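User: I'll paste a sequence; please echo it back and then give the predicted structure.

Assistant: Echoing your sequence first, then the prediction.
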Amino acid sequence: QVQLVESGGGLVQPGGSLRLSCTASGSIWSITDMGWYRQAPGNQRELVAVITNGGRTVYEDSVKGRFTISRDTAKNMMYLEMNALKPEDTAVYYCNAELIFTTGDRGRSWGQGTQVTVSS
Protein backbone atom coordinates (compact mmCIF):
# COMPACT_ATOMS: atom_id res chain seq x y z
CA GLN A 1 0.00 0.00 0.00
CA VAL A 2 1.23 3.47 -0.89
CA GLN A 3 0.39 6.71 0.81
CA LEU A 4 1.01 10.32 -0.22
CA VAL A 5 0.60 12.88 2.53
CA GLU A 6 0.63 16.64 2.00
CA SER A 7 1.33 19.24 4.67
CA GLY A 8 2.02 22.95 4.97
CA GLY A 9 -1.24 24.48 3.85
CA GLY A 10 -2.98 27.25 5.73
CA LEU A 11 -4.26 30.81 5.68
CA VAL A 12 -1.93 33.52 4.40
CA GLN A 13 -2.34 37.14 3.39
CA PRO A 14 -1.89 38.25 -0.22
CA GLY A 15 1.79 38.61 -0.99
CA GLY A 16 2.71 36.03 1.61
CA SER A 17 4.46 32.69 1.30
CA LEU A 18 3.82 29.05 2.10
CA ARG A 19 5.80 25.86 1.65
CA LEU A 20 3.95 22.64 0.90
CA SER A 21 5.47 19.22 1.45
CA CYS A 22 4.49 15.80 0.15
CA THR A 23 5.80 12.56 1.59
CA ALA A 24 5.40 9.24 -0.19
CA SER A 25 5.58 6.01 1.77
CA GLY A 26 4.78 2.34 1.39
CA SER A 27 5.71 -0.33 -1.13
CA ILE A 28 7.59 2.00 -3.47
CA TRP A 29 10.52 0.90 -5.61
CA SER A 30 10.98 4.27 -7.25
CA ILE A 31 9.14 7.45 -8.21
CA THR A 32 9.31 8.92 -11.69
CA ASP A 33 7.28 12.11 -12.14
CA MET A 34 5.85 14.04 -9.20
CA GLY A 35 3.51 16.97 -9.39
CA TRP A 36 1.30 19.44 -7.59
CA TYR A 37 -2.27 20.00 -8.67
CA ARG A 38 -4.93 22.29 -7.26
CA GLN A 39 -8.69 22.53 -7.29
CA ALA A 40 -10.69 25.61 -6.39
CA PRO A 41 -14.42 25.41 -5.60
CA GLY A 42 -16.41 25.01 -8.79
CA ASN A 43 -13.30 24.44 -10.90
CA GLN A 44 -11.62 21.38 -12.34
CA ARG A 45 -8.39 20.12 -10.87
CA GLU A 46 -5.46 21.73 -12.68
CA LEU A 47 -1.75 21.11 -12.89
CA VAL A 48 0.38 23.59 -10.96
CA ALA A 49 3.86 22.18 -11.45
CA VAL A 50 5.59 18.90 -12.21
CA ILE A 51 9.12 17.63 -11.68
CA THR A 52 10.67 14.58 -13.32
CA ASN A 53 13.10 12.22 -11.64
CA GLY A 54 15.78 13.98 -13.67
CA GLY A 55 14.85 17.32 -12.14
CA ARG A 56 13.14 18.85 -15.17
CA THR A 57 10.33 21.17 -14.12
CA VAL A 58 7.22 22.51 -15.82
CA TYR A 59 4.95 25.21 -14.39
CA GLU A 60 1.46 26.44 -15.11
CA ASP A 61 1.73 29.94 -16.57
CA SER A 62 0.06 31.78 -13.69
CA VAL A 63 2.58 30.50 -11.12
CA LYS A 64 5.79 30.93 -13.12
CA GLY A 65 8.27 33.08 -11.23
CA ARG A 66 6.32 32.74 -7.98
CA PHE A 67 6.27 28.99 -7.24
CA THR A 68 9.20 26.59 -7.11
CA ILE A 69 8.85 22.82 -7.16
CA SER A 70 11.61 20.59 -5.84
CA ARG A 71 12.09 17.06 -4.60
CA ASP A 72 14.33 14.95 -2.39
CA THR A 73 14.52 11.65 -4.23
CA ALA A 74 16.30 9.84 -1.39
CA LYS A 75 13.50 10.73 1.03
CA ASN A 76 10.61 10.32 -1.44
CA MET A 77 9.57 13.89 -0.72
CA MET A 78 8.45 16.81 -2.86
CA TYR A 79 8.03 20.47 -2.04
CA LEU A 80 6.25 23.52 -3.43
CA GLU A 81 7.60 26.90 -2.37
CA MET A 82 4.87 29.46 -3.01
CA ASN A 83 5.70 33.17 -2.92
CA ALA A 84 3.78 36.34 -3.77
CA LEU A 85 0.54 34.46 -3.18
CA LYS A 86 -2.65 35.84 -4.67
CA PRO A 87 -6.30 35.26 -3.71
CA GLU A 88 -6.72 33.30 -6.95
CA ASP A 89 -4.19 30.76 -5.65
CA THR A 90 -6.77 29.69 -3.07
CA ALA A 91 -7.51 26.00 -3.59
CA VAL A 92 -6.96 22.52 -2.26
CA TYR A 93 -3.48 21.45 -3.35
CA TYR A 94 -2.86 17.80 -4.16
CA CYS A 95 0.31 15.81 -4.47
CA ASN A 96 0.54 13.29 -7.33
CA ALA A 97 3.23 10.76 -8.12
CA GLU A 98 3.90 8.17 -10.80
CA LEU A 99 5.22 5.15 -8.95
CA ILE A 100 6.97 1.90 -9.60
CA PHE A 101 5.92 -0.47 -6.85
CA THR A 102 8.07 -3.16 -5.28
CA THR A 103 5.97 -5.69 -7.23
CA GLY A 104 7.19 -4.14 -10.47
CA ASP A 105 3.79 -2.67 -11.31
CA ARG A 106 3.36 1.01 -12.14
CA GLY A 107 0.62 3.38 -11.10
CA ARG A 108 -0.33 6.88 -10.00
CA SER A 109 -1.26 7.92 -6.50
CA TRP A 110 -2.85 11.04 -5.04
CA GLY A 111 -2.62 12.63 -1.64
CA GLN A 112 -5.66 13.73 0.32
CA GLY A 113 -5.02 17.42 -0.31
CA THR A 114 -4.12 20.43 1.79
CA GLN A 115 -6.09 23.68 1.84
CA VAL A 116 -4.37 26.91 0.87
CA THR A 117 -6.35 30.09 1.49
CA VAL A 118 -5.03 33.49 0.45
CA SER A 119 -7.08 36.25 2.02
CA SER A 120 -6.72 39.47 3.95
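The chain has no helices and eleven strands. The longest strand covers residues 28-39.
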